[in-house]
Amino acid sequence: MKAESSTLTPFTKRVLTIINQIPIGHVMAYGQVAAAAGNPRAARQVARILHSMSDKYQLPWHRVLNKTGKISLRGEAATRQRRLLEQEGIVINEQNQVKMAAYQYIPKENAFDLGEYI
DNA sequence: GGCATGACTCCCA
DNA sequence: CTGGGAGCCATGC
């Protein structure tokens, strides 16, 4: 379905596409998603996109963590994300942190050009 | 067009 | 480990 994609900027669409391609049981860092979308320094924008889109799109937003493998949310939201990750078999310690080396997903360079997911 | 914002990241103490 | 400060930049008002 790509009905609403026309209102989104190319960068946003690439970000959404990439996030949708993260396999179950894997995660990506905000900066990594941004880099895959073409702008390695737009990590904050990725976070912003997730914040505004996660409720309108069926995004696996919980598979996006900061670069240290930690959950960047706080309070209830952090607990919610933690549970979702655990449901996928991802192990998180008391500091809401996972082993990035073990779970990080590395997308193919041109994967986002397809735009088939939005 | 300008300015504030932030689910980030990097660097140093 | 924690904490503070600076840089970055697409988005929204």
Describe the structure.
There is one protein chain. The protein has 118 residues and is mainly alpha-helical. It has a single domain, classed as Winged helix-like DNA-binding domain superfamily/Winged helix DNA-binding domain (Arc Repressor Mutant, subunit A). It contains 5 helices and 2 strands. Strands 1-2 form a two-stranded parallel ribbon. The termini are close together. The protein binds a DNA duplex (13 and 13 nucleotides) through helix 2, helix 3, strand 2 and helix 4.
Provide the gyration radius in Å: 14 Å
Total strand segments: 2
Strand order of the largest sheet: 1-2
Unreliably modeled segments: 114-118
| Helix share, percent | 25-40%
What structural class do the secondary elements suggest? mainly alpha
- What is the CATH H-level superfamily? Winged helix-like DNA-binding domain superfamily/Winged helix DNA-binding domain
Key words describing this protein structure:
118 residues; mainly alpha; Arc Repressor Mutant, subunit A; 3% strand; globular; disordered C terminus; DNA-binding
